[in-house]
Each structure stands twice: as C-alpha cells, then as structure tokens.
Amino acid sequence: MTTPIHRLRKTRIIATLGPSSNSAEMIEALFNAGADTFRLNMSHGDHADKRALVKAIRKVEKRVGRPIGIIVDLQGPKIRIGDFKGGKILLKEGAGFRLDMNKKQGNTKRVCLPHPEVFEILKPGHQVLLDDGKVRLEVVENSKTTVDCKVLVGGALSNRKGVNIPDAVLPLAALTAKDRTDLDFALEQKVDWIALSFVQRPEDVAEARKIIRNRAGVLAKIEKPAALTRLTEIVEISDAVMVARGDLGVEAPLEEVPTLQRRIIAVAREAGKPVVVATQMLESMITSPVPTRAEVSDVATAVYEGTDAIMLSAESAAGKYPVEAVEMMDRVARKIESDPNFHISSIDDRARPDATTADAISAGARQVAGTLKAGAIVTFTTSGATAVRASRERPVAPILVLTPSLKTARRLSLVWGLHTVKTRDVAGFEEMIAKSRRMALRHGLAKAGERIVITAGVPFGTPGATNVLHIAWVTGDELDDENDD
Questions:
Q1: Given Cys at both, which of 39, 389, 390, 424 links 16, Cβ 3.0 to 4.6 Å?
Q2: Which pLDDT tens digit goes with each residue over 194-206?
C-alpha cells in the first residue's frame, strides 16, 4: 500500500497504540490505512514503552513525509475499591453492603474504599456504580469513615474494580501524582496533545494549562455528568474536547448518550474547537475482521454530526485486526462525506463567525471557494489559529495549510479537513501567491486551470493577523519552479 498524496476524507482518524500496534512497521501500516494521529494511553505500560512508541511514530513521520500527531492520554483520578478475601464475591440484590476505610480484605458485607475525600460528598440516595456500572449500590447512610449501601443491581465483584459516582462532583485533584509524572514525561517527548481524563470543571483544565504552558494542546475528555453542567466553560478553556463515551455511558443513562454526544459536538463546533468521538466505535473488530452494522452506523452518525475526529481504542491497541479497523473507519467516513446530505447538514450546523477580521476572512474564503468551485483553500498560519477557523467553516473545497512550524503542523492533524504541510515561511505577497499555486498542485489539491482561494496575514509571520483573501489561477507551470519548500 502506498501513502496517498492527501487524504480523500476530511474527518480525521485517531488510532490508539498498544500490544497489537507497537512496531514502526505496524504504525506505518496504520498511517497508510488512514490514521492521522496516534494515542498513547498512560493507563497501560510504562515510560520506556511510550518513549519507544514516540520514537517509532517520528521515524514513520520522516519516512512518509507527512506530519503525524501524538496524543498522550493521562489516566486521571480513577477511584477503585480494595481487595476481597479469595479475590471475588457475589453481591445479591437487596442486600446491605458497606464501603469503609478498613484496609482488611473485603467480603460480601464490606470492602475498603481508600479515598477518604469521597465519604464527605456521598449522601443518602446517591448511587455508587462498581465495575463500569455492572454492580449498582444506593447510599442509605454515611459518616466520615463509612458508607452503608443497599445493592440495587447485584453480581460478581472482584479486586480493585473501578468506582463511579454520577450524582456528585468529586473533590479530587484534576491531576494525580502519577498524572503529573506522566505529564512531565509527555512534554519532554514533545507530544502534540495532552488528554485530560475525568474533567469535572473548567478549573481542572486551567490547572493543567498552567503546567503545559502551550507546549501541547489540551484536550478535555467529557466523561462525567458534572462536566456537562459547565460544558461551555470547559470547551472555552480547552483547545479541543473528546466525547469519551466509556465512563459517560456508565454514569449517564445509556439512552442519553447519543443526545449528549450531539450536544457536546454542537457546543464545540459553535466555539470553533476540535471535537473527537471515542469509545467502542468498532468494538467487535477487536476479535472480528468485520464490524456490526450498528457500529458502522455509529461511526457514520459521528461523521454526519460534524465531529473533527473519530477514535479507535482497543480495536487498534489490542485487537486482532488493527489495520482493518482503520480501513473500515476510512471507508465509512469517505462514504458519508460523499453524500450530498452531508454537506447540507454541514451548512445547517455551521457556526456564525465571530466579529473579527480573521473570522470574516475565513467565512469569506469558504463562500468564495464555493461560488467559484475552487480547487482548494490555501491558508498560511504560524500558530494554527487561522487553519482552525478555516476548518470551522466546513467548506466543500479541501483546505491546504502551509506553516513553518512542525509543532503546529502536527497539532493540526486532529482538525477536520486540513492537509497541513510544513514549509518555509514567505516574505512577500508575490512569493505567497507563487507558493500557494505550487503547493496546491504538488499535493494534488488543485489542477491546472482551477482557481484557489488564499488567506494569510500581512505583515507575514504575525500570529492571529489574518487579513488577506486572494484568488489565484493554477496554470500547471508552477512545478517547474525548483524552489526548496
């Protein structure tokens, strides 16, 4: 399989790396199949493993000649119960069960919950979900060291299972000691995105931003009902958000997850922030070479709703068919994007531009490109902000992003519709026009005889100063220019 000059789809694909995909050869196969960005999950493995993966990704990036993004997903403050005598118990519906601070092994009557801060916020009537909601408890009575519960839904329960508390904001630090160590490591590796798990409030994102200091993009995972009460604020302070449907589907009623997904995407789109849909998108492909029809529809729905990226988790990290899973996502996304109704819905959902020159230029570029049926929109950017604005408009024409910053190019691999190229900056207007024509032709986004729409900021190299819109013809003679790009 050969690497295409540019993707034949606009929705981006994120593939999680793991035991099934930890070699440079497999990473390159996943890229060729359609993966644009790779996710490293800090809940599994150690720093040596992740360092090797970063090195392998950068090796592939150099070989294929395309910027590749890397997301490091922090584990976050995961709450777990203690151990049981014998390793496992069976809880019966209607029985009493106590959570306490006693470190002795548990039994069918009680188990340790080694999180003293949780006891202060649990109240009678609150639900406590164990093992991804398979076992459900209701708080009957609580104190500073014990919580007595009634078993609403019984079942088998084993050591160290996770705890979810959907009815309260947990008084936990946004970043655990492990997260801080992992974050320092990730920033040393110069990864492109940091994903924050179990975000509950905008202050959680602000805490991480102070440490990251724009050395990577901040991606807030929306997986707690508490986050939904302050969703607009969280989106505003984040660089991107993720609809993390795993824990969200545990803590919120399952029937609400589709509407919550749609709401999160809409809020992110309105704010002009990239949004990712994740978890169990092609779950059956962990063990099967083909997905279920319901899974294909799930991927299609996310694309129709305007998500920037769709993500594979265990399918590519630990499954038997990682390449086939990426290829399936690629085929589904391309098929949906070829549907005329897809572009109609994109127009209907398009956010109104803000009252800024940069937004007005981006909106104008989309309209002009549509009217002229231009081959491409070419955007010059240093920080990436202009490219994100162009993506927000969801134009029919492909968007070619030219940037002198490899850091920016990698970070933009998460964003809808962008084909980003690292290239030398331009110094003057005529050089800008010539480079736009040449690069659009070279990367297959425009043909001889087509027009392109160019946006940039003058003076050149000034971040956030987009104030120029220009239309140019591509003649086909541009490739005769041997200028080193």
A1: 39
A2: 999 999 999 999 9
